[in-house]
């Protein structure tokens, strides 16, 4: 990594440390975000490159033994960790702002370190390209948001269908291919569920395999299409990206590429909700409005007017009041699970009752308890939240239990009366580039407070 700039390195950003804001010794142990609510927002917000596309495309760069230049890569902790994982298997990686140069000419290791892989889900996806390049890969079971069991059985079954021997021992997935060329074989694979990660792992494995691979019931998410476009730009033969059926004809070699990552539809959706919940007009760019069809449709149901311009700008004009609406999360093009928690924050302030059903992950409603702490009226029935709108939320100390839960709390805090303190920011830092600074630029009263240095911290505790 070149830069001394924490933003470029994907590290959290130290803002002002105003000791008068540090109210308790426990606050001083970890970064927190403080938000004084009920400011209106105004202006234009720049949407960063998509986290979930950037991470898997970084993994995909392992397929290529020539130079890969990636542009529009967001500055996130997850991107930094993925960079470290690539370095650990021998990749030469240089970063300059939002541009990352990756050269995977020589892969020196087939094993990814547990300490890094355990931090993010997308790290596991390197198993496909590592196997394709080396005929062997050892990757620990991954981390990521704690929103369900998140098994990798579909990845493993698909790799086995392509001729890999796969076993899981002591938490490490070990896969290898036998035969003189140690090359995976094309196969016909049906996914029981259109898993984003399994589709991506198997697509990458198939790109350099011997023969044709068909993935049926494939995920259709924009990030899957972006990965396919990246691989095609290197010479891969992939048809059907964005449909339920992918056909991949293996090639023996990929060439260098210069590729720009798509804008982050989840970050864009979060800022649309920031506008709606604060009753503020905002403009977002760059965005691909088609990637937000389900979110825009639901926002319109809640009373907002949304105008897409030039296929890369979205303007939102919130209605006088927030109307209730029901939501069920589904694989793309359905309503995205990653927007479920943020959208719930909006509906806590609606004029009526909304049902929000989470179907993609079995345990992705931890934010409910935190929103209730802020005065929301939510009851749970199985995986459905029954949200009865209240006239106002009130600021409170809350914990960001996972990435999108953190975004939901930031949104609730922007609308709430009084001050909200959000802790456990490690989740938020994984997925939002400078969310506090972007909101501040729009007029939010938001401050990130970094922990005191160790020495000052212990003397503060002694007092
Ligand atoms: C890094 C990344 O891109 N993360 C995204 C990706 O996660 P991820 O790729 O992990 O999500 P999946 O689409 O694989 O998971 C969806 C469902 O399938 C299940 N499943 C998945 C794989 C498997 O082998 N077996 C299995 O049962 C999961 O437990 C979950 O219940 O897509 C999710 C669904 O849009 C998003 O919320 C995440 O932000
Ligand atoms: C769940 C998410 O990320 P991950 O899959 O990396 O845990 C997310 O981006 O909302």
UniProtKB/TrEMBL annotation:
CDD domains in the cross-refs: UdpNAET
Chief location of this protein within or outside the cell: cytoplasm
Compartmental location: Cytoplasm
Species this protein is from: Limnospira maxima CS-328
Residues given in the record as UDP-N-acetyl-alpha-D-glucosamine binding sites: 121, 150-154, 338, 360
Classification of source organism: Bacteria, Bacillati, Cyanobacteriota, Cyanophyceae, Oscillatoriophycideae
Physiological role: Cell wall formation. Adds enolpyruvyl to UDP-N-acetylglucosamine.
Chain positions recorded as phosphoenolpyruvate binding sites: 51-52
Catalytic activity: phosphoenolpyruvate + UDP-N-acetyl-alpha-D-glucosamine = UDP-N-acetyl-3-O-(1-carboxyvinyl)-alpha-D-glucosamine + phosphate
GO cellular component: cytoplasm
NCBIfam families: murA, PRK09369.1
Record protein name field: UDP-N-acetylglucosamine 1-carboxyvinyltransferase
Biological process annotations from GO: cell division; cell wall organization; peptidoglycan biosynthetic process; regulation of cell shape; UDP-N-acetylgalactosamine biosynthetic process
